[in-house]
Amino acid sequence: MRCSVKAPAKINLSLDAIRKREDGFHEVEMIMTMVDLADRIDLTDREDGAIKVDVSEGFVPNDHRNLAYQAADLLKKRYNVKKGVSIYITKRIPVAAGLAGGSSDAAATLKGLNQLWQLGLSLDELAVLGAEIGSDVSFCVYGGTALATGRGEIIQQISSPPPCWVILAKPPIGVSTAEVYKRLNVQEIEHANTKAMIQAIEQQSFAGICENLHNVLETVTLDMYPEVRNIKEQMIRFGADGVLMSGSGPTVFGLVEHESRLHRVYNGLRGFCQDVYAVRLIRSTDT
Ligand SMILES: C[C@](O)(CO)[C@H](O)COP(=O)(O)OP(=O)(O)OC[C@H]1O[C@@H](n2ccc(N)nc2=O)[C@H](O)[C@@H]1O
Ligand SMILES: Nc1ncnc2c1ncn2[C@@H]1O[C@H](COP(=O)(O)OP(=O)(O)OP(=O)(O)O)[C@@H](O)[C@H]1O
């Protein structure tokens, strides 16, 4: 038996860190949403019980380090599954970009194997398992738009933002999430107004969303990598309505309401950066 699952990228419309916890993680408040740039996960079950991973991009690990492998391994061990699986990952989401590519691959693998291995688990159960793999995996299991708290694994779904375009620009560097969080000084940051962001989304106020875009990790990454700051400045200069770095970066996204302006921002950025994508937000009715 086979099945294919889409694994979309996420962006953080806001990301606030409340405090550093005893376990080394940060207590966060994040508003996350999916965009229609996606990896594809093809799963084929195997009678020999093995888990095999193959990835379209040779530099992504194809062993136990791959988060999709970890998802399959976790399900297999936890539910004592005798079958194995061949996982083929067609990567389209840039890697180590702040777009949760690996986390989304893991979430898609959990969902696909739930069907393939007929485990009958609910989304809530898959999300709890996902949290064992990484902080972003639970959100990726549900998709849509959500408030994520705890270390990112406590998910409360909210309305989808109004339709708009999203330009993603990724400079040619990879950023370590652990390193960025390590350099964050929670005592000194200007906090995000998460409530105002939720309210803007509930009221379908595009202007309100743009006004409340805030990511406390942005200053850290911008100080470490001037090229990320440059992309942010260019995105603003070319006229995106709202601009923010996603996650721990280095991808910067720009929200654009009108298609007429989309081309100017997209073409302008192409002059500075090779990895530029024009995508849409995924509304929960689209999935
Ligand atoms: C930056 C974000 O992508 C925003 O969505 C997430 O907060 C990070 O999610 P992720 O990549 O799934 O992160 P994980 O693999 O769970 O954690 C990587 C490292 O980031 C740091 N980390 C992560 C999440 C969190 N709430 N606090 C942290 O301090 C920890 O040092 C951890 O060892
Ligand atoms: N399926 C996968 N796809 C991409 N990278 C993976 C995968 N599994 C493991 N990795 C490893 O994880 C690292 C981070 O990749 P990923 O693309 O998930 O980062 P990210 O977009 O910054 O994630 P996040 O936004 O959740 O912090 C990569 O350097 C890669 O070696």
Overview of this structure, please?
- With 287 residues, the protein is α+β, with helices and mostly antiparallel strands.
- The chain folds into 2 domains: 2-157, Ribosomal Protein S5, domain 2, CATH 3.30.230; 165-286, GHMP kinase, C-terminal domain (Alpha-Beta Plaits), CATH 3.30.70.
- The protein has 10 helices and 11 strands.
- α1 (67-78) runs parallel beside α2 (101-116), α2 crosses α3 (123-131) and α8 crosses α9 (226-237).
- Bound molecules: 4-diphosphocytidyl-2-C-methyl-D-erythritol (CDM) and adenosine-5'-triphosphate (ATP).
- Adenosine-5'-triphosphate binds next to α1 and α2.
- Adenosine-5'-triphosphate binds at residues 60-61, 65-68, 89, 95-103, 105, 136, 174, 177, 247-248.
| Count of alpha/pi helices | 10
The CATH class of the largest domain is Alpha Beta
Distance between the termini: 23 Å
Q: Which series of helices and strands comes N to C?
A: EEEHEHHHEEEHHHEHHEEHE
What is the rounded Rg?
19 Å
* Unique ligands: 4-diphosphocytidyl-2-C-methyl-D-erythritol, adenosine-5'-triphosphate
Total separate domains: 2
Estimate percent helicity. Answer: 25-40%
CATH topology of the largest domain: Ribosomal Protein S5, domain 2
**What is the approximate shape?**
globular
Mean pLDDT: 96
| CATH structural architecture of the largest domain | 2-Layer Sandwich
- SS-derived structural category: alpha+beta
Q: Are there runs of 5+ residues with pLDDT below 50, and where? A: none
Count of DSSP strands: 11
Task: Report the sheet-strand fraction.
Answer: 25-35%
Major pleated sheet: 7 strands, mixed
